[in-house]
Hints:
By secondary structure, chain A is of the alpha/beta class. Chain A contains 11 helices and 10 strands. Helices cover 37% and strands 24% of the residues of chain A. Helices cover 77% and strands 1% of the residues of chain B. Chain B is mainly α. Chain B has 3 domains: 2-148, no CATH class; 150-191; 219-449, MetI-like (MetI-like fold).
Amino acid sequence: MDVMVHPIKTPGPASAAAAAAAPDSAKIIARSVNVxxxxxxxxxxxxxxxxxxAVTAFIGPSGCGKSTFLRCINRMNDTIPxxxxxGEIRIDDLDIYDSSLDVVQLRARVGMVFQKPxxxxxxxxxxxxxGPRIHGHARSxxxxxxxxxxxxxxxxxxxxxKDRLSDSGTGLSGGQQQRLCIxxxxxxxxxxxxxxxxxxxxxxxxxxxxxxxxxELRANYTIIIVTHSMxxxxxxxxxxxxxxxxxxxxxxxxxxxxxNPSDKRxxxxxxxxxx
Amino acid sequence: xxxxxxxxxxxxxxxxxxxxLARAAATARSGPLxxxxxxxxVFVALGVLVPMAALYVIGVPVGQRLAxxxxxxxxxxxxxxxxxxxAILRDVQAVLAGRFAGDPGEALRRAAETYASVRWxxxxxxxxxxxxxxxxxxxxxxxxxxxxxxxxxxxxxxxNIVLFASATVAVLxxxxxVMSVLFETLRFFERxxxxxxxxGLQWSPQTAIRADQVGSSGAFGIVPLVTGTLLITAIALxxxxxxxxxxxxxxxxxxxxxxxxxxxxxxxxxxxIPTVVLGFFAALTVAPSIxxxxxxxxxxxxxxxxxxxxxxxxxxxxxxxxxxxxxxxxAVPQSLRDGSYAMGATRSExxxxxxxxxxxxxxxxxxxxxxxxxxxxxxxxxxxxxxxANLTFNPxxxxxxxxxxxxxxxxxxxxxxxxxxxxxFALGFVLFFFTLTLNVIALQVVKRYREQYx
Lengths: 275, 454
């Protein structure tokens, strides 16, 4: 299940273009996904393929269902008592809504980064070590330290925090906190990382830093990012899906969506006529 | 008299308000005012209220003192002590009210007449001066109503003063209580050395009434009381700590909203049960059953045991711990739970590793509050723990606590000057010092570990 067993593709325009063009190496396959919050039909019949090792952006106006769909992929909707999900979502060949599936194992494969940075009120080290500890990934203290260091390096935070690993994670700046949350997610070696508007609480410089990081991470991880910023979607993603009123309107290579959308609603949205 | 004065005061205040309002409104017609008319009205009303109320507060006791001293002078007794003095004054009041049994006698009757006439003159003077002051205040403050007059500023300052005074009263009350307890404690330490008091191993406050009496030497060592109090508090915490905390976790993290809405009020009812009811529950229900179980197991259980009192006291503090902990656990932001669940943590892992550490400060202060309540609790231990000052850590024996001893010492007819009575103040002071220390520690812990969430 570890990403390391797959041959690591070199990141770059070639692989990105390949992923954007043909989602036949689909990592996640969703078919007829519906979500209900009580009586409210929040997500309607969504079917989509998410390519492996690429960034897929979900865009759309507020309340369009993009975050709802994102939360289906690691079954975070399970934590909302009134939410009900139908349809099928597969990661590789695993049906994640199969009754025998253990969400703990699913969430170890599908990490998540939230809108507001939410480091635990623990030290930087403990924040990153949290996942490996609960999943028993490290056999020794040295191994755990190794995982923490690698994760922080991958999240581009190591240089800034290596001398204050024992300081509280909540004492970092907003951008650093968000990268800490990314490091925390990476630490359990997920295959997929879900990001729910990861930059909406950050200033432009911190946002640029996170976007760079997302671009680096896509070499090893399948990333789905929900964003309100169309510029951000255009900058970081290879594929884009546009949601409107709970419906997946259109999905395709980012460039196509932004230059030559086939649906009028998409065109209206990206040209700023609503949303 | 008071009724007339107060009604007159109310009328004058109302008149002042209306006059001020009307005058300000009239002024407003010829140009803009600094303050809106109601502020002028309130200002004039205060111009009446403040001098009249002040005069009343000062005048009534002065009039009474005057009448009392004149009445006493009519007796011509020379120097008399407080006790005699208040006895005479009670008689005077009784004569005036026509409740005096039997013949009051010439002197007393004369004193009563003097008292009544002085009171009458004093009251009349107070009424006259009071209304004069009120009217003067009304006229003066009414004259200051003008366009540039800053009535709003003055009214705000008055409100500021009232609020400050309220805060001061609260602080001074605390200070006053501490001081009075402290002074009595110092008087106690004139009779019993502090070392004997704090480190003595024997508590038997009954001092000898006759010099040759046996077995009532009086020993004031509080160590047995300390151990008794700590033992019962520890038992209470052993009961209430886990139950309260686990209940809070269940209510905050596992229970459905319906269950929560049902159970929370019930827990609050438990908090509302008078401790005297819990006390006889402890003495009449819990203690005998503990004794019964003990005997079944072949243990020797006293009929009043620390265990019974502690268990029931634990029941008393469960709602404190659970309700407060529930609140602090709920205050932990949902984003932290989401973060933990998204890492693949289970519910109990999330609670253990994220929520409880984040809520730690609040939970500690909940426990501290519960301990303070337990240490200061009286009725349960009075009924269930007993009076025997045994120096023991055996929960099956009878022990006694600070509060029980204070109650026992002060109930019934007591000679105020004896070491026995004064020891109650010393016990109270130690108890106060103990809970104060607990509160300070709790505050420090909260400051040290509090997480700021925005």
